[in-house]
């Protein structure tokens, strides 16, 4: 196997970040996110473009929005990232704060871009570290419930917009603790592709349906597990 240098933020960052000023009305933030499919959080900046925090759609939905500003409900303490950081180091940050992007800042804390969740997912698959060291659940374990998510084969997988992506083909677990780490999803119909999706991209499981925090376009960016060459 050929060793690859760590993928840096500057290689995959978006240079047109989804930002909003903290002084703007909370209703404006809500309308912005409602009008952009797949955007569940915005980067909050001051008038000079310096990073202040993040505002999440779910927080706006729970807030009394009349007269409130973005800074009233924004999440502070979210770490900003720099262009020369390794993307793989940031895999758990978005899950910890329940956001779908991270601000990329320069030395003066001015936002110069954003790192979307899809880029982190792609970097994780690119290194091959996501599945290495894990093992497939044996037949004896296949009926056991995951400590956090009860994901089983043949469940329907849908994206954040509610559109169907495919079906669960395999469930992957940690070789030591047995906890869910990835699900292999078969997308498409007869000539579909198999995609390995990290467990932290699962939003919730209800009935026979697995809902993801990302959409089909993000899943499509992942390598096909059955591809050759």
Q: Tell me the distance between the termini.
A: 13 Å
Q: Mean of the pLDDT scores? A: 80
CA radius of gyration: 19 Å
The secondary structure category is: alpha+beta
**Percent range of helical residues:** 10-25%
Beta strand %? 25-35%
Any idea what the shape is? globular
Helix run count: 7
Order of helices and strands: HEHEEHHHEEHEEEEEEEH
Which regions have little confidence, pLDDT < 50, spanning 5+ residues?
128-147
Number of strands: 12
Biggest β-sheet, characterized?
Answer: 7 strands, mixed
Describe this structure in words.
The longest helix has 11 residues, at 117-127. The model is unreliable at 128-147 (pLDDT under 50). By secondary structure, this protein is of the alpha+beta class. The two termini are 13 Å apart. The protein is built from seven helices and twelve strands. Strands 6, 7, 8, 9, 10, 11 and 12 form a seven-stranded mixed β-sheet that branches. It is globular. The chain has helices spanning 9-12, 26-34, 57-62, 70-73, 93-97, 117-127, 216-220; strands at 19-21, 41-45, 51-56, 101-105, 111-116, 134-136, 156-158, 164-174, 180-187, 193-198, 202-206, 209-212.
Characterize this entry briefly.
The protein is α+β, with helices and mostly antiparallel strands and 229 residues long. The chain is 19% helix and 28% strand.
């Amino acid at each position: 196997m050929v060793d690859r240098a760590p993928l840096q933020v500057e290689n995959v960052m978006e240079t047109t970040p989804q930002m909003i000023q903290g002084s703007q009305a909370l209703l404006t933030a809500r309308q912005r996110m409602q009008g952009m499919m797949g955007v569940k959080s915005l980067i909050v900046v001051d008038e000079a473009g310096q990073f202040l925090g993040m505002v999440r759609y779910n927080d706006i939905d729970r807030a009394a929005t009349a007269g409130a500003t973005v800074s009233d409900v924004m999440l502070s303490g979210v770490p900003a990232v720099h262009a020369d950081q390794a993307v793989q180091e940031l895999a758990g940050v978005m899950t910890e704060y329940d956001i779908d992007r991270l601000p990329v800042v320069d030395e003066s804390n001015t936002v110069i871009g954003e790192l979307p969740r899809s880029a982190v997912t792609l970097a994780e698959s690119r290194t091959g570290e996501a599945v290495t060291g894990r093992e497939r659940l044996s037949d004896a374990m296949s009926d056991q419930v995951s400590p956090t998510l009860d994901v089983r084969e043949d469940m329907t997988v849908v994206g954040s917009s509610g559109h169907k992506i495919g079906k669960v083909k395999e469930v992957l677990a940690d070789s030591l603790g047995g906890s869910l780490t990835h699900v292999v999803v078969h997308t498409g119909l007869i000539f579909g592709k198999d995609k390995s999706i990290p467990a932290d991209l699962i939003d919730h499981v209800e009935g026979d349906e697995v809902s993801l925090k990302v959409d089909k376009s993000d899943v499509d960016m992942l390598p096909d597990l059955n591809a050759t060459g």
